[in-house]
Design goal:
Blueprint lengths: L2 H22 L2 H4 L3 H19 L5 H24 L1 H8 L3 E5 L2 E2 L1 H6 L4 H10 L8 E6 L5 E5 L8 H4 L10 E5 L2 E2 L1 H6 L4 H11 L8 E6 L5 E5 L12
Antiparallel strand pairs: 1-2, 1-3, 3-4, 5-6, 5-7, 7-8
């Protein structure tokens, strides 16, 4: 097997792996279910064989990739059509804590330990299990929690405070490059951006800006190449 053949097979394998998630949808990346987990392992194994296993014809492996992708796509469609099939294909949430009580039977059924539960709670910012009213292990392996009423954060609505309208953040400068399309899409101009920069940071120019964004409250945030921090806490 020549180096050129290995190079070509590897490029084809990577290209197929980049193409397949676009066919299956973004949920495959962000919310991996049982079906997605099996599909990803199988596709990875087939792609590795396509790249390095010279005893297998590339056409056979490409055919297998197409079949696996088609099966996964059809199963996903089936899961959308049938709730019963969705539970079998994608799995279903498991209650770990109910009314503040740990559900030992459910945890034993899915082989989920208290150590794993405590770790998952800490990752959600909960260090005291007594704060949790409900906790569910979702299909994708993540944990969802509902805190007891006494431990929930107070909102503006709770306090009767006026609520301000919010907008989606708009990135204006990325990696030092002005995002002309974003400016045009929101009726903004480079001249306006320069004017606002001078008002907030006199003496600074657009070439000094590494990142700029208009936030949810229409506030402008600028980050500069030169941050003025002489002794950073962490420097690679």
């Amino acid at each position: 097997m020549t180096y050129v053949e290995i190079l070509i097979r590897t490029i084809v394998a990577v290209g197929l792996l980049l193409l397949i998630p676009r066919i299956l949808g973004k949920q495959t990346l962000s919310n991996m279910t049982f079906n997605d987990f099996v599909t990803s392992i199988t596709l990875g194994s087939l792609a590795a064989n396509l790249a390095f296993n010279a005893t297998l014809k590339p056409s056979y492996i490409v055919l297998s990739l197409v079949v696996i992708t088609t099966m996964s796509f059809l199963l996903s469609l089936l899961a959308l059509k049938s709730r019963k099939m969705r539970s079998w294909i994608s799995g279903s949430p498991t209650v770990l804590i109910e009314n503040g009580k740990v559900m030992e039977a459910n945890m034993k059924k899915i082989r989920y330990t208290l150590d794993s539960l405590n770790q998952a709670l800490r990752e959600r910012g909960v260090f005291n299990i007594e704060e949790v009213d409900y906790a569910l292990l979702e299909d994708n392996g993540r944990i969802s929690i509902l805190k007891k009423d006494a431990y929930r954060l107070v909102t503006k609505q709770d306090m009767g405070l006026p609520q301000q309208a919010q907008a989606f953040p708009v990135e204006l400068i990325m990696d030092g490059a002005v995002m002309e399309d974003n400016l045009k899409l929101h009726g903004l101009t480079r001249e306006w951006l320069e004017k606002m920069l001078r008002q907030k940071h006199g003496g600074k120019a657009l070439v000094d800006v590494f990142y700029a964004v208009r936030g949810t409250q229409q506030q402008l945030v600028f980050d500069f190449y030169n941050d003025g921090i002489e002794q950073p806490l962490d420097q690679e």
